[in-house]
Design brief:
18% of the residues lie in helices and 41% in strands. It is an alpha+beta fold and 78 residues long. Strands 1-5-4-3-2 form a five-stranded antiparallel β-sheet, covered by helices on one side. The longest helix is centred in the N-terminal third of the chain and has 14 residues. It starts with 5 loop residues before the first strand and ends with a strand. The mean pLDDT is 88.
């Protein structure tokens, strides 16, 4: 999902460690043909633009029973 300054990514695995999450995001973006590098655990350069990385866990299923979904939000920064 992509908007003007923000991108939302849903990865196949759930990550509890910020370093592992940011590494997975970079690898995911590279596998999709993007130029991407990690600056720190919360900042990446994607196609020559700087983004801040945050994540959000969403409960899935009826009555919150099921596997939670982790969404990664990349917001462009100046």
């Amino acid at each position: 999902m992509l908007s003007k300054n923000k991108m939302v990514i849903e990865l196949d695995e759930r990550y509890f460690n910020q370093e592992e999450l940011s590494n997975a995001v970079v690898q995911h973006l590279i596998s999709k043909g993007n130029s991407c590098e990690k600056i720190d655990h919360y900042t990446i350069i994607l196609n020559n633009k700087k983004y801040t990385l945050t994540d959000k866990t969403i409960s899935m299923g009826v009555f919150n029973i099921g596997v939670p979904l982790q969404r990664v939000i990349l917001k462009e920064t100046k």
